[in-house]
Amino acid sequence: MTDIILIHQNALAGLDPAFIKENPEFVAAYSNINSKDIEALNTILKAVDQLLKRYSTPNDKIKNAVEIIFRQILSRYPLLFGYWKRYTAIEYQFHDLETSLKTLENATESFPHSIDLWCDYLRVLTVNYPKETELIKTKINKAKQLIGSQFYSHPFWDLILDYLLKTESDVIDLYYEIIRIPLHQYAKYISSFKKLLSERRLNDDIKKVDAIGKENQIMVNQIWRFESLIKQNYFNLTPLPSLEIDNWINYLNFLTTKHSDKPQLIRSVFQRSLIPCCFVEKIWVKYLTWNQSINTKQNLSELHDLVQLYEKGCRVLPQTAHEFRWMFVDVLEKKYTSCEKSGRTLLFTSFCKCIKNMIEIWPYRQDQIKSMETYLRMLKISKYYSALDTPSKELLSQQAAYTKYLETSINNYISDRVDHSIVLEDLINDRNLDVIVVELIRTTWLVLKNTLQTRKYFNHFSKHHTLRTSVEFWAIYYKFEKSTKNFVRLNSFVSELGTNLLLPTSFINDIINDYKIFYLLNSNITEYQTGKVGPNSSHDLDSSVILDPIIEIGFKINNPKWTRRAPNSGRINKTDAYKSLQYKENGHPGIVSDTPQITNTIIDRQSKSFKNTLPGLPTFRNLEKINQTGNYRDYYSEDILNSKQ
Amino acid sequence: MSYHQYNSHYQRNTGYTNSNSNNNNYQQRHGGYGYQSGFQDNRHTNRSNNYSQREPTRTHPINNASNNTTTNNALRSTNQLYMGDLDFSWTQDTIKEIWKTLGEENIRVKMMMNNNNNNNNSRFGDNTTIGNKDITKNQGYCFIEFSTNEQAANALLKNGMNIPSFPQRRLKLNWGSGGNVTHSNNTLGTATATNKSIDETNNTNNYSLFVGDLAPNVTESQLYELFNDKYPTMIERARVMIDRITGVSKGYGFVKFINSNIQSRAMIELQGTYLNGRAIKINSTGQGRQQTQPFTDKKLIGINEKYPNKQYHNNNNKINKLSLFMLPVQQLPKLNHMTDPNNTTLYISKISPYVNESDLEEYFKPFGPYYNNLQIFKRDNDENNINTNDSKSYRQGIVQYVNRYDAERAMIALHQYPIDGIPLQISWGLPIDVNQYNEKTQIHQDIQFKPQPSYPDDVYTYV
């Protein structure tokens, strides 16, 4: 929430008008800020630099503005370590050492896999606060976990060795640790360790070190094949070349298949790969698949870490990454059923968050519907759980409560009284409303067996505009009416397809094919005779033309707009027939032409009066258009060809 | 409209004539400005019942009404000049400026402004492009009154000169009879002017005829032969107007005769002759009439019936009436996605942004098999920023059926069928390379690889 406020904050708001006037390039750089373009970000940085050169002792307002700018950029892209460094330096210039140290600490938290930031932080800490040994020790341990296994982590190890030597603690254990890690400069540590050991005359250990060193050398040589190909190991906004991504993937494949016994190393490589490749969905998926494969035991803190990792991935990945998010939803669902009670609340809240996020970023139908369906499934399991051994009374009451909950949510949504504190109501939108309505109807009809109420729901919801075009809703309506064998309603429903109910062609075709058979099997002569009148012919005469379920409904197949002409007009309106598209296209769809016509009829030429009087001269319509070329309805040229010119 | 047309057609084909008209009245020529339609108005027919007795001094009925005896000599003795081919935005002041640069300061300009009351007939002449509602625009000509006849005659010598301040235009001058003509009808005004100039040119041994409705493949020699066969050695030359840009015939031309007698005869006798399958249409020359359009407005006839003294309208109508009964020679249209009878690709526009490929397939699948998949083109930054109210957020798509019949049925059934509340618009199209279509996204991928900025080590001055 604070992030959102930060992003929308205007950093220049607090500045003096005079200041703004004097520094137009700074203002311009800020107003041109484009979070997707690294150049724009660099420009603002340069502008800040110039600003600070000009004002060597800036006032509080300027300080504040600059800080906000940095926070805005870094909250969005915490992986820009250069910006963190600059920010720290500026904080030091503005305030004091403590503030800048705090900034660095923040940096290591936001970007925990950066050797640079950790080294800087530890260096500042050890140099300036040498007495805080406890803090230093915990930080060192933390850093060891996070970055110790990285291939280029030698500056970090050097730093620690230095520190430990200064504080005169024993480094042998640490050396043993280091020499097992495949580092870029592994040899350096082996030789210095051997030197140390020979000083202390520990010959056995030297042998041991040699053996470890050899092993490690083989390992380093193996991974050097991949490491040498890495050109960009820092984060950037511009997309990474595909060769680099392929190299990372090959590297990870190699490690996970050949060296699956070194999870620490694999994890560290994954973490490193996700710095430059943090927008690459493939690697995220790979990482989490691998992560799940090694963590088989159910443990609340690990579950928490896993969820956190997923959430981070969802945050970072672009909106086009569908696979990763669905993987997350699947994992949550699976874990939910398998884990014990304590983890369930965590999983369910995370699930709600995830679904909400998905519904927000994907306004498309399918993903929406899918996520809503998943949500309802989870909701039912978590809040209205029922097992085989639940007593039937309790079971029924739970189902009733579930139905009630759905109904209030839907009604609140329809009547625009959405309570955002209730998760379901917050999630509903026009696109997924039908999923919930169908769920409500399904439980009422099939679980609670309340036919009367079901019909009420149908009558109520069928008036809502988003449900009128919902396939799911009308499919269940058709099934319901079929089960009650209400032919009057069915006839009216089928007749409205394509004209009043604008549903997909294939759906209409399926319904009509099915209904034809169903009608012939189940109807009788009385139904047939009464069925054509229509259910409520008294009050909507104009809208409903009831088609003959045996003869006429077949015309709708592959021609959804087909309908019988309204009976009251009797015959086809001849005067307007020539205006119809069908007449004008004359069998050539898309090409409209006005053909000349004789407008005065010669229908009575057989009559006697015709013989007695001279026939009237023919009159014409559209005669002047006889030489006109056809009129093309050509959206293709309009849109594609013309737009390219 | 067509009762009259039909009537005249009937007359022509059967030889039956109205008892009122005692000669082939629809071929009458009168006063050099066109034909008259005799059969509706006896008074007029009687006045000029024989083309050989035509009075070259007559101008037109309106002029007759206003100043009865305007002769050519009288015209010459005036100090008024007609100036045509004006830009429609020019005003009296502009004209004055022009003449000032030409050394004639002491002039009076009568600009023929558009009359807003009659706005249906402006298509008559050159100035079809006049915005009729814009009364500030002129009609493309004016009259200039010089102080003496001599000055006017001198000024006339400048005819055809480039206008200094408007180099793309030339002076178009002629003797003019008057700005005192009351123009109740702007069409009429144009006709007055142009026909007058024609009259002048005719008097200076320019016996030309306008030949319209030519088939596009008619050559000059064909046109020449047609006339020369009928009147040997009487034709000076024949010209077919060619569009300078496309090199294709404009569908009309001019034939020049050696005397007016032959000219008049040709107009009657060769009227409607078939040349390369199309009936030609002969008319007197006139700037305003070179591109005569089929003149078939019902409204126009209505106007003429209301104002029977403006016969020249009917004259023109008659010529065009004849052309309506010509056999249509239609050219084969160019082969493109619209006209190709084997095209099976449908182009779908106005797809709701909420509809994706698989949704749309539910609509198009039942009609028959298609190649590949149905495609919806994604805009460059697709998934976010959808705003249904914005028409630009509609998508376009392509589906290519295997059979033409299926494609046609799909188009008929689904054109204007609303999906998600938005009616689809379907027309014939061509398969599109989606990658090419999304050029913008490609450019996005080609962005130069720029390194992240790094900072010199000395940023930590405090360490």
Structural overview:
The complex is a heterodimer of chains A (645) and B (463). Helices cover 65% and strands 1% of the residues of chain A. By secondary structure, chain A is mainly α. Among the domains of chain A are: 485-570, no CATH class; 578-644, no CATH class. In chain A, the strands form two sheets. A two-stranded antiparallel sheet of chain A has the order 1-4. A two-stranded antiparallel ribbon of chain A has the order 2-3. Chain B is of the alpha+beta class. Chain B has a domain at 345-445: Alpha-Beta Plaits (2-Layer Sandwich). Chain B is built from 15 helices and 18 strands. The longest helix of chain B has 18 residues, at 186-203. The model of chain B is unreliable at 1-75, 116-134, 178-203, 287-325, 380-391 and 440-463 (pLDDT under 50). Classes of the chains: A mainly alpha (645), B alpha+beta (463). Chains A and B meet through helix 4, helix 6, helix 8, helix 28 and helix 33 of A and helix 1, helix 12, helix 13, strand 16 and strand 18 of B.
Question: How are the SSEs ordered, and which strands pair?
Answer:
The complex is a heterodimer of chains A (645) and B (463).
Chain A: H1 2-8, H2 17-22, H3 24-31, H4 38-54, H5 60-76, H6 81-94, H7 97-110, H8 115-128, H9 133-147, H10 154-166, H11 172-180, H12 186-199, H13 203-227, H14 242-258, H15 263-273, H16 281-294, H17 300-316, H18 322-338, H19 341-361, H20 365-383, H21 392-414, H22 423-427, H23 433-447, H24 451-461, H25 465-468, H26 471-484, H27 487-496, H28 505-522, H29 525-531, H30 574-577, H31 581-585, E1 591-592, E2 597-598, H32 608-612, E3 620-621, E4 631-632, H33 635-644
Antiparallel strand pairs in A: 1-4, 2-3
Helix pairs in contact in A: 3-4, 5-6, 6-7, 7-8, 8-9, 8-10, 11-12, 12-13, 14-15, 15-16, 16-17, 17-18, 17-19, 18-19, 19-20, 21-23, 23-24, 23-26
Chain B: H1 3-14, H2 42-47, H3 61-66, H4 72-77, E1 80-84, H5 92-101, E2 107-113, E3 138-146, H6 149-156, E4 162-163, E5 166-170, E6 172-175, H7 186-203, E7 207-212, H8 220-230, E8 235-242, E9 249-257, H9 260-269, E10 274-275, E11 278-279, E12 281-284, H10 298-306, H11 312-324, E13 345-351, H12 357-364, E14 370-376, E15 395-401, H13 404-414, E16 418-419, E17 422-423, E18 425-428, H14 434-437, H15 439-445
Antiparallel strand pairs in B: 1-3, 1-6, 2-3, 4-5, 7-9, 7-12, 8-9, 10-11, 13-15, 13-18, 14-15, 16-17
